[in-house]
Amino acid sequence: MSRTLFRHDRIWTGDAGVPWTTALLVEDGRVVAVGGDAVEAAGAGTDTVDLPGALVMPGLHDAHIHTEWLARDLSSVDLREARSLEETLELVRAHAETLPEGEVLHSGRWNHNRWAVPEQPDRHALDTVSGDRVAALSSVDGHTIWANSLALQRAGITRDTPDPVGGEIVRDASGEPTGILRESAQELLAVIPHEESPLRPWLERCQDWLLSVGLTSITDIDGEDARTAYAELHADGALRLRVTKCTRDPDLELAIAEGRRSGQGDDVFRVGPVKFFSDGALGSHTAHMTEPFIGHEGCGIAAMPYELLLERTLTAARAGLDVVTHAIGDEANRLVLSTFEAVRAEGLERLLRIEHAQHVLPVDIPRFRALDVVASMQPSHCTADLELADEIIGPRRLASYAWRSFLDAGVRVAFGSDAPVEDPNPFYGLHAAVTRQRADGQPLGGWRPEERITLTEAVHAFTVAAHESVGRTDVGRLMPGQLADLVAVDRDLWALEESSPADIRDTVVLQTRVGGELVHERR
Ligand SMILES: [Zn+2]
């Protein structure tokens, strides 16, 4: 049995009854006593660790993160900061020169909404810098691919190729594909054979990164390659993050056939929910809305017909799998709630979440509560998208990034980052949740400031509520019986909340411990 007494002047426990303490006794990875009880129970001869920094708090849980995508990004070019097509192309050219011959140009996360001329690019521009290699660059939200001519040719996409269900091959005035593939049309490129670099070493680097920013648990949204890599890491004792692993829609039948059930696994690696898509994203104008976007035709895209979404949701829930469904637009949220109504009507007590729940009809908010549906939200999406939301959705017709409204209606809110769409640092998310301001302090007073929440509420959404949203109640608070996952940070967030909330964003994690074990230390 291992037994350690952890001490610090300011330990925030997350336990509403005893929010602050100064000592934690940890036995075999779990807190067994706090405060004076801990010191007394420890007795003489117990190992004692004085934790560094200005504050100790529970480790954070990112409830929605794509770690395979994040890991592969570590091996690709980052186009997010480019401010023009020309700058973007120059970055692609420079990156392509570093790649071995024939290796595919992928990812990139370009964001034309931030370019001087915010128009979606075409294949001809990409052809000028990609050389004789396939290029298929993802947009920042992952809902659009910008392909070069060679990629279209290898995938057999021509003017005669019909749009797939739930997707669009964008065409120019003469009917030729421009290279922009939206939503399910991205999958047309899957026929191109390419060597993927092995995932495991990149996932290990990714793990170190997440531990270093204070994350001790994640709910991973990516696919079976990530599942296999995580299972290998766990078998080798190299998995230090607690990972709840989602199953993607295309793998549902495989999961059921294997007997996969949500909650299977151990303290470190567990079977999570199935992830479905009901619509696209705001930046690509593919969110499914009840009214058209301002300045654009159409109400976005339904990722699959409602009947199919309902059937697949029920198939998963009946098989013992929890369900999380992506919904950005108000129409998408309305429809997903209706699929969940059908789950509840069958008396199925599965955990249900809506991923993003970004722009919701105010009348639908009470339905989340009535159906016990978790709003799984990403505060950094609000601060990244606020200008776009103003521009294409307009004044306050909808409850947008409406954390306060959800909490006030008694809805459970879990937070995450949706990395690599946004940075995985949870302190960026806490800052956005509390201020609704970007890093530069804009807009003054916060965007729709009535939707701000308190630091305690935001931390709850990144800890207890995130764990509970995947069925875990034995982690998230530093109190007896809970897993000893904690971080020591350089500043006291609760002191900053009133005086200088902007500084929450710059929090530095000095130590991260999972089950009491040191897994990250800042040197
Ligand atoms: Zn996502």
Describe this structure in words.
This protein is an alpha/beta fold and 523 residues long. The protein is 31% helix and 24% strand. The protein contains 17 helices and 23 strands. Helix 9 (306-318) crosses helix 10 (330-345). The protein starts with a strand and ends with a strand. The protein binds zinc ion (ZN). Zinc ion is lined by residues 64, 66, 221, 418.
Please summarize the sheet with the most strands: 8 strands, parallel
Please tell me what the overall shape is.
globular
Helix content: 25-40%
Report how far the terminal alpha carbons are from each other. 29 Å
Gyration radius, in Å = 23 Å
Going across the biggest sheet, name each strand in turn: 6-12-13-14-15-16-18-20
Helical/strand content category: alpha/beta
Annotation field: number of helices: 17
Return residue spans where pLDDT drops below 50 for at least 5 consecutive residues. none
- How many beta-strand runs? 23
Beta-strand portion reads 15-25%
The overall pLDDT average reads: 95
The ligands bound in this entry are: zinc ion
